[in-house]
Structure formats: structure tokens, C-alpha cells
């Protein structure tokens, strides 16, 4: 059973990656010298805001697109989750309350009364139970959501208590279940269980629960959503939100400056300075809650742990981050596997440290000086090529030859999911905000091992201890053991703890309400100002 689910999980990993009234209020803006200043603005009811995305959505079914940034950006305006759990705390949406049992095995979810789908049908416990079962039954196409319904690679069970209450039971203690289950975006059972319709027909209906509903979709051009006035919370301020399909990054910047889109992510210092120095833009600058890491595979030249140790000891992580990102505006060196937004982050954590002389000895001892390592990177993600070049140069100083292989997203994640010896190293990343949900893909022996990332079973035991109690202090102590056990394998090397920097035209605001999560969580906060 576990082997079958693990196979479906790896398939899912690949599928994921190929994939207003008026009133006075205080708003925060960034001045030319970079300081935050409080200015009085007036919220404007109505209007439109435009974002850029890289391509069409494969579906308007949230679970089928989970883990894809562009898809989640769009679909989070159409679907609400049960709640949001981040380092800032818990915010309830469709759920009225969520309660964990003392033994951390059962989560009782109470939905708000009076919830409606966009077609007017009521949202009930049946929809949530259907969604949990749907994700399990469609695991190969449901992206990262499959991880939300598995504990120790075994499925949770969902039981109806009454029309608004569901009890979810895990096969083992799982204190983080409020996050993993809580951030599921329920699907309407009356749509997705209708066998008379094809999946394409169901997707085209795009019936959701969020503050905006689908208005128009022109493939290859744009997706437009409009305010849902019968929303259970205060309706959104904007009349419409438009997601324009602009794959080319240079074209996005030109569209931003022309006013065709109103929000632009910034990835280099020169662009940041241009917009920061202008009064026409607001700068949004927050820790991203993401760790970029170097992973060493065991299927080829790095099967010997001493060979992996040689590679790791040759690296100067601070130098890599400084060389790729410049100053700390865009990233800081990772302290551990946990980002600054993780519940388990500690400033005193220590990452791997460079020991070049020891690295050289290990290179000779293991024969790495007679081999060429293949380093794969995702050429479509910012900073990956620059990071690869920095690492290639540092390893050269230790006597290790490295061949760089840039890949598109599809090829990269295909290579990540197999361990056939064709790739020795790769740069990847995971979200790390509040609970550690995404990092476990790479820090559990059975999931990491399936991809060729050797991880000792001591790591699994430490995770189990982290999940065994609701006491956060005890969980933090156990989480320290996870990273310390993982470090001994010399397999996953945390490199950078990144920031998310974006510019927004000055007549829009609301991004600072929940930090980065606003983009994927609560579109009611976005509004025009004057």
C-alpha cells in the first residue's frame, strides 16, 4: 500500500511542476530612501486590478493545480480554504472552528453556517468529505494536495458528524493537521461528483466559494474574475481582477510600466532601485518563507557519503548568497532547513560550514577528482543559473569538476523524481511558513529516498516526535533534532532564505495586510486608493 501511494506521490510531484465604498484609512508606502512612511489615503470602491501569470491553467479545480504558483494565484480568488495557518497565526475562512484532540490524531472541523457556492448551493460537510476523498482517489493529478491527506503515507479518514461538522482522523499523531487539512480548498460535490459531465465541463463552470467568481476566460490571453456579492464575509472592494497571460518577463515589466498590469515581482537590484526611487509605485518587501537548497543524489558518483561530505564542505554558503543576490534585499544565507517564517526557526541554528582543506582530502580519498559531476538546474527560475555557476566555481577550488545542465521546468522535475545516476546535484526549493509541510518531501527517508536523496530514519523518528504533541515548545525541540539528524547525511544543503519583493502602482494597496500570503489568501484586502 505504501509503495503504491509513494509511486502516485512522485507522479504528483512531476504533474505539479509542469504545470469598493469610500472611507479614510492609513496606508503604508515606501519612500525613495526605502523608509516606511504612514500616509492618509482614501479607499475607492470598485475598479479593476491586473496581474500577470505565465500561462493557462490546466483546470479550474483547485486541487488539480495545487503547488503551481500561477494557478494558486488565480484560484485563490475563486476558492476559499478552511483556514490559513502561517507564522502570523490562524485566520478562519470557511471553517468556524477547528479543534485538535489531545492525542493529536483527530481534527474536528466546524463550518460556518450559511456558506454558499457561487451558484447558490449550500456548502456543507458533504463537500469537505467529498474533497478529501477526491484528492486521495485522484492522487496522481492533485499536485501537492495529496500530501495533505496522508500521514506516514497512509490516508486520513473523514467522518460526517452533522451537516456542518467533519471529524478527520489520522493513522498516527499529526499535530500539524490544522495546517495540512485546514488549507484544503473544498470542491462543490454537486459539480465534481456529477458523472454526466466531463472534467472539462466541470472545470469550465468554475464554481467556487471565494470572494470572486469567474467572469471570462480567453485561453492564451486572460482570466477575469468578478466580485461575488453574496460572499459570506465583507465582499471585495474591487469590481474585477484580471490575470493576463504574459510568459515573457521583459514583456511583463513593459506592461507594468504601461499600466496594463498593476503588480510586478522584482528579482534584481537595478529594477528595485528604479521603482523604489519613484513616487508612482509602492514597494512590497517581505520574507518569502522559502528555502532554496542544493540536493545531492545517491544514484551516481555521490553514492558514498564521504563524497557528499566533500561537496558540502567545499561550499561557502554566505559567499554563494552574496554572489547571486547581492545584499540582503533578496535573500539571506539559510540558517537551517527552516526559513525565518517557520514556527521552528531559531536564529542560533547553524548550517553547514566550509572546510576547504578537509574537502580536498575527501575528494582525493573518494576519487571525486577523477569524475565529473552533473549539476541540473531549473533554467526558468530566477537565480538558479547564477547559483549553479557560483557552486561550480567553489567545487573547482576543491578539485571537483562539475558539468552544468540547465533544464526547463518539465525536464527538471522529471530528473528530480528519478535516481538513475544521470544527475548528481540539483538546486530546488520548498515553502517554509508556519508549519513545515512542504519541506517533508525532502526530509523523510521514504519520500526523499525515492528521489535519490538519502535521509536517515532518525529523521523520520524526529518528525514523529514533532507531531506527537500539541505543545509547541516540545515540538520546536523535536524539530531541532530533524535538522541535526538530516545534516549527518550530507544530502540536502539549505542555501538561501529568500525575500519576496514586488512593485505595485501607487493607486493600489492592501498587499501588506497579511504579508506574502495576501496573494494566495485574501483578495478582499486589495483595493484602489486616492
Automatic annotation (TrEMBL):
Any one Gene Ontology BP term: peptide transport
Family annotation (InterPro entries): Peptide/Ni-bd (IPR030678), SBP_5 (IPR039424), SBP_5_CS (IPR023765), SBP_5_dom (IPR000914)
Signal sequence segment: 1-21
Molecular-function annotations in GO: peptide transmembrane transporter activity
Domain named Solute-binding protein family: residues: 93-436
Family, as annotated: Belongs to the bacterial solute-binding protein 5 family.
Source species taxonomy: Bacteria, Bacillati, Bacillota, Clostridia, Lachnospirales
Protein name: ABC transporter substrate-binding protein
Amino acid at each position: 500500500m505504501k509503495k503504491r501511494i509513494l509511486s502516485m506521490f512522485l507522479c504528483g510531484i512531476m504533474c505539479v511542476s509542469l504545470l469598493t465604498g469610500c472611507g479614510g484609512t492609513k496606508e503604508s508606502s515606501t519612500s525613495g530612501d526605502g523608509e516606511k512612511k504612514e500616509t492618509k489615503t482614501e479607499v475607492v470602491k470598485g475598479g479593476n486590478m491586473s496581474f500577470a501569470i505565465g500561462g493557462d491553467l490546466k483546470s479550474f479545480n483547485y486541487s488539480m493545480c495545487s503547488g503551481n504558483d500561477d494557478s494558486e494565484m488565480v484560484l485563490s480568488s475563486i476558492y476559499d480554504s478552511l483556514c490559513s495557518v502561517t507564522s502570523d497565526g490562524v485566520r478562519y475562512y470557511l471553517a468556524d472552528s477547528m479543534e485538535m484532540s489531545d492525542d493529536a490524531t483527530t481534527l474536528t472541523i466546524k463550518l460556518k453556517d450559511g456558506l454558499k457556492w457561487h451558484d447558490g448551493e449550500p456548502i456543507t460537510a458533504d463537500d469537505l468529505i467529498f474533497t478529501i476523498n477526491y484528492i486521495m482517489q485522484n492522487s496522481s493529478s492533485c499536485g501537492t494536495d495529496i500530501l495533505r491527506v496522508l500521514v506516514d503515507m497512509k490516508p486520513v479518514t473523514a467522518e460526517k458528524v452533522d451537516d456542518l461538522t467533519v471529524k478527520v482522523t489520522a493513522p498516527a499523531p499529526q499535530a500539524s493537521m490544522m495546517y495540512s487539512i485546514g488549507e484544503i480548498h473544498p470542491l462543490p460535490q454537486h459539480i465534481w461528483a456529477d458523472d454526466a459531465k466531463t472534467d472539462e465541463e466541470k472545470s469550465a463552470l468554475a464554481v467556487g466559494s471565494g470572494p470572486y467568481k469567474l467572469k471570462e476566460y480567453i485561453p492564451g490571453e486572460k482570466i477575469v474574475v468578478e466580485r461575488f456579492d453574496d460572499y459570506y464575509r465583507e465582499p471585495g472592494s474591487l469590481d474585477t481582477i484580471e490575470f493576463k497571460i504574459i510568459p515573457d518577463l521583459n514583456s511583463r515589466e513593459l506592461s507594468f510600466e504601461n499600466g496594463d498590469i498593476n503588480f510586478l515581482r522584482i528579482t534584481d537590484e537595478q529594477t528595485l532601485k528604479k521603482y523604489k526611487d519613484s513616487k508612482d509605485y509602492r514597494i512590497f518587501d517581505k520574507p518569502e518563507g522559502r528555502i532554496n537548497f542544493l540536493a545531492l543524489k545517491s544514484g551516481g558518483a555521490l553514492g558514498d557519503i564521504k563524497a557528499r561530505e566533500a561537496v558540502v564542505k567545499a561550499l561557502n554558503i554566505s559567499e554563494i548568497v552574496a554572489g547571486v543576490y547581492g545584499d540582503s534585499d533578496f535573500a539571506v544565507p539559510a540558517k537551517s532547513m527552516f526559513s525565518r517564517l517557520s514556527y521552528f526557526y531559531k536564529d542560533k541554528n547553524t548550517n553547514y560550514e566550509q572546510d576547504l582543506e578537509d574537502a580536498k582530502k575527501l575528494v582525493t580519498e573518494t576519487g571525486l577528482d577523477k569524475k565529473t559531476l552533473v549539476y541540473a538546474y531549473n533554467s526558468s527560475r530566477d537565480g538558479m543559473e547564477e547559483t549553479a555557476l557560483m557552486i561550480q566555481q567553489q567545487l573547482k577550488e576543491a578539485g571537483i569538476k562539475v558539468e552544468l545542465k540547465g533544464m526547463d521546468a518539465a525536464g527538471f522535475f522529471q530528473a528530480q523524481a528519478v535516481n538513475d545516476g544521470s544527475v548528481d546535484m540539483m538546486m530546488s526549493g520548498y515553502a517554509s511558513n508556519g508549519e513545515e509541510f512542504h519541506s517533508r518531501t525532502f526530509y523523510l527517508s521514504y519520500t526523499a529516498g525515492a528521489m535519490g536523496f538519502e535521509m536517515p530514519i532518525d529523521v523520520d523518528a524526529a518528525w514523529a516526535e514533532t507531531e506527537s504533541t500539541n505543545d509547541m515548545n516540545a515540538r520546536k525541540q523535536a524539530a531541532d533534532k530533524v535538522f541535526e539528524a538530516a545534516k549527518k547525511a550530507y544530502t540536502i544543503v539549505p542555501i538561501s532564505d529568500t525575500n519576496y519583493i514586488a512593485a505595485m502602482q501607487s493607486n493600489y494597496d492592501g498587499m501588506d495586510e497579511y504579508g506574502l500570503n495576501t496573494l494566495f489568501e485574501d483578495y478582499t484586502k486589495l483595493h484602489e486608493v486616492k
